[in-house]
Fold this sequence. Notes:
By secondary structure, the chain is α/β, with parallel strands linked by helices. The chain has helices at 15-25, 72-83, 104-119, 183-188, 201-213, 239-244, 248-255, 275-281, 294-306, 354-365, 367-376, 390-408, 463-467, and strands spanning 3-13, 34-43, 46-54, 62-64, 67-69, 88-94, 128-133, 139-144, 150-159, 163-166, 193-197, 217-221, 264-268, 286-289, 311-317, 320-323, 326-329, 333-339, 421-425, 430-434.
Amino acid sequence: MSATINQHIKLAISEAHHAKLREHLFPGDGLEAAAIVLCAQSAAHRYVVNQILLVDHADCRVRSPDRICWPGSFIEAAIELAETHALSIVLMHSHPGGLLRFSAIDDESDLDVVPALFEASESPSIRHGSAIMTPDGAICARFYDRQLVTTHVSAVHLAGDELLTWQASEQGSLLPIPMAFSTEMGRHLKSFTACVVGVSGTGSIVVEQLARLGFGRLILIDFDEIEFKNLNRILNATLDDARNSTAKVARFASVIPTYRDDIEVITLKASIATRKGIELAGEADVLFCCVDSFDGRQVCDRIAAAFLQPLFDVAVTIPTYQSAAGVAVGDVCGRVDYVKPGGSTLADRGVYTPEALRREYLQHVAPNELAEQVAEGYIKGVAEEAPSVISLNMRAASDCVMEFIARAYPFRQEPNAERARTQFSLAAGEEEFMGETDFSCALNPHLGRGLIEPLLGMPRFAISEVRA
């Protein structure tokens, strides 16, 4: 087997799958155990765990502290499960001794088994692989192509209450997570890709922070162009941008390289509710939703689940009321939601509802029908937002990025699990938090589906729909 290091493959796993694997692979007897992990692609070089198949301990012919032999029937079962959606098969076993590196025995085993996986696969571009887990839960993995060229996974991501990233050194030890706010944190972030959906009021401020913090790759998605009315709240926007109707994403693509020469900025001038938007967002390690539409939030919600990404959703509002003197400010509010794959979604939390999605749809396609429904009381009124809100946007966007830092480089004294949602009221001078257990959590059928058709489980994004 030959090896290559020019491709950076990443693997993402949900909290629930990781816990199930760890419990099975380390039953407490100090002996190796095995499982098979089926992965879907979320991008050309990013994979997500779709499902797992546990190898019964009693069925293994050999189980010792440094070796395991298990029946081929489990591999046959995995091949059958993987065939429908062309999933990649990753053979995983434990290293009870704690070595986060493949041994010579592991290499020999892969050389025997992996070719058989390719013989059963019809897809010419599919990869299969192997992985190991150590007692602390760390994972090291590698993939093979049909020529058995090896590509080691550069990082394994798990988005739980903390954002865990496992990167192994050549010596087989786990690379440490740097201290929050340190120079080393900035260097560490260079291996991360963030996607920001919506590059306007709060989104432009989020992008500015991520770029200056040190992210190595930014994906910016927004369909809109800069107008004169935007100049009071979009960072880096100029009068010339408004005159020329410059795309919001293009403005940042030109500005960021003026202070970062080691960053890649990828832009898409399109709605996130498109195949291109979904596929591009699927390349990211972390997703920031800075849109003001319910449909946009629903799509981001589905993307985060399908591609096992941590999702940070930010919103601001200024509710008003009718006073004797006229319209008055009722409150000045902001909200940041953190959604972990497999946890409560934005839908579970009521950020958007079927009624809100329908109202928004009618606003676009049937405004007359919408007006009638408002008169009839079926559609609830929406509080207006004042246009001069950059100070409020700054506060909310900072909270959003700080929420990411607190989970990727923990520094809080209280558990992150208690901060699934942060809400603040500047009028009342209050800030409140809601934990994951404060929300109901429905079964999520989209978890870890990656690029399986139809995208996000939504027929409107199927290939046939696009070509029609």
